[in-house]
Amino acid sequence: MLQPVMHILKQKNIVLASGSPRRKELVENIGLKVQLCSSLFEENLDPHSFKSFSEFVEETALQKVLEVENRLICEGNVPDIVIGADTMVTLGKEMFGKPTSEHEAFEMLSRLSGRGHTVYTGVVVKSLDEIVKFTEKTNVFFGKMDEEQIRGYIATGEPMDKAGGYGIQGVGGSFVERVEGDYFTVVGLPLFRLCSVLYDMFKHEILL
Amino acid sequence: MLQPVMHILKQKNIVLASGSPRRKELVENIGLKVQLCSSLFEENLDPHSFKSFSEFVEETALQKVLEVENRLICEGNVPDIVIGADTMVTLGKEMFGKPTSEHEAFEMLSRLSGRGHTVYTGVVVKSLDEIVKFTEKTNVFFGKMDEEQIRGYIATGEPMDKAGGYGIQGVGGSFVERVEGDYFTVVGLPLFRLCSVLYDMFKHEILL
C-alpha cells in the first residue's frame, strides 16, 4: 500500500519503539526501514483506571513512544516518526499479559483451549506535528488442546515472552483454528491500519 | 500441537510436494523438518469438470503428491509421508490463478480492491497406508486500493508468482483489512487442520 510514498518514507528516520523482533519483521516485510529502539517505559499503568481495553493499550503505546522520542532527542538523534504498539490478550473481562511462570502459561493456555478470545493492539504513530492513535481487535479461536499438547508447547519455550502465552506466527499458530480481523494485530502490529495512517500522513508530499 | 508426537515425526522422511518457500517456512515454523520436492505434475486439470472449488484444489494437491511419491520411490528414496497442497483465489464463481502478465495482475488486484474474496487451499497427506484429503477456505477483505498503489505493488515484483496476484505474508499484507478463517490457508498451507491430521495419524504410536 505504501509504494507511492515509499521514496518519501525512505528519507525519514522512522523509529519503532519496541524490542520485539516480530514487530520489526512485520514492518520490514512491507518494505519499511526502521530503527528498533526498546522503550524503557515501565508498563505499569493500572488497567482498571481505563474505561476500555482499547484506551489502556493506546495509552501504553503512547507512553512507549514518548519515552523513546524524548530519549532520542536528548541524544541528538531526532526521529521523524516514532511508532509504538502494545498488545494484550483478553478473555471476557480478563486480561492476559506475558506469563510469569510455566505454571501461569499452563493456566492461560488451558483457559484459551477450545474457545475464542480477543487480541487488542493499540498503536501510536507520532510525527513531528501530529499524533495518531488507534486500536485494532481481532478474535482468535483455538482448537481443543489436550494436556500433553499444552505441556509440550510450553517446553518449546515459545509461550514465555508472549501476551496470552502463545505466538501465532510460531508453533502456536498450529493451535489456531480461525481468526476474525487483521491477523497482524495478533502478531503485534496491525499492518492495514498502520499503513493507512502512514499513507495519509505523507501522500500530500507525493507531488512536491 | 504436534509436540507429543514430534519425536515420532522426527524419525519419518516427510516430503512436502511443493516448490513454495512460503509453505516450507510455515512447516518449519511449527518445528517440522521436511524435504521440499517440487511436483512435476502439469496442473492442467479443467476446473469446470469439478463440482466445487474444493474438489478441484484437492485433486490438484493429490496429483502433486502422487507424482512426487512415485518419482521418489523410483529413485529409491521412499518417503514415509508426502504432503501436497494447492491454493486458489476465488471471487464469486471466478478463479484467479497466478497472473501471467503485469496487465493481468493489475486486472486481478483491481477486482479484489475494496471487497472480500475467498481463498481455497486443498491439502493431501499421504502416509504408506492412508490418504487424508481436506480443503480449508478463508475469506479475505481488501481495503480500497488506488491505481498508484496497485501499480506500485506490481512494481515490487511480488504479485507475479502468487495466486490472485498477492502475497499476504509480504507487502500484500498491508492491503488486507481482515480475514475470516485460518490465515495460513491464505499463505498456502492451513496449519491447524494439517497438524490435526498428523497428530491423529501418529498419536497411537506415542506409548509404543
UniProtKB/TrEMBL annotation, chains A, B:
Cofactor annotation: a divalent metal cation
Database matches in NCBIfam families: maf (TIGR00172)
A Pfam family matched in the record: Maf
Keywords annotated in UniProt: Hydrolase
Entries under InterPro entries matching the protein: ITPase-like_fam, Maf-like
GO molecular function: nucleoside triphosphate diphosphatase activity
Superkingdom: Eukaryota
The keyword Iron appears for this protein: no
Protein name from the UniProt record: Uncharacterized protein
SUPFAM superfamilies with a match to the protein in the record: ITPase-like (SSF52972)
Record has Membrane as a keyword: no
